[in-house]
Design goal:
Layout: E1 2-13, E2 20-31, E3 35-39, H1 46-53, E4 61-66, E5 69-70, H2 76-86, E6 87-90, H3 102-112, H4 119-128, H5 144-156, E7 162-166, H6 174-191, E8 195-199, H7 202-205, E9 210-215, E10 218-224
Parallel strand pairs: 3-8, 3-9, 6-7, 7-8
Antiparallel strand pairs: 1-2, 1-4, 4-5, 9-10
Length: about 230
Amino acid sequence: MEILRCENLTKIYGQGENEVRALDSVSFSVEKGEFVSVIGPSGSGKSTLLHILGGVDRPTNGKVFIDGTDIFSLNEDKLAIFRRRQIGLVYQFYNLMPVLNVDENIALPHLLDGRKLDKERLDSIVEHLGLSDRRENLPDQLSGGQQQRVSIGRALYSHPAILLADEPTGNLDRKTGEEIMKLFRESNQKNKQTLILITHDESIAMQADRVIGIEDGRIVRNEKVRNIV
């Protein structure tokens, strides 16, 4: 079943001689439970694509449908609510609140949405991420890998329809990066979590079900890597 579809996404910055076409008529779809990697060199448009898929940025032209909803037909308030409930975002630089502990950072978007804390869900995520002995720690008391785990937990807590990760291992050493990728694969395979991961690393990209390659704002590659479990 299709969970995401983008149609003719175009993003243009600047005008005239200063015009930059970051995305140029990008179209593809993702099935529920699929793990897709988007690979490309720096400046290829892959991060711009992720920000548009996540509703953080709006395209110049084109549409994005997530679980049947045309997200850019929503006004800003409704889009913000949809984003909190249906889209999990994991960034390279964690984006944790420095004054909140592990539990609070994971549950924050859920609580901001006015919903009651699901302690059983929180306990399960913290245990799965190997953070049970760090729950009271603030971000500056955690390693980079632990902070990224908190970021992943925050993205997963609300059962999002889709998880988007932008270079999630980019600031980590090789061993920690491998551990983070293992967490993503487990979430995808065991929980059927739909995942789109942005990377410039071919070895990371090839761990997905499908690889989409972007250069100069256009799709130049779209190939299956392995069968979807």
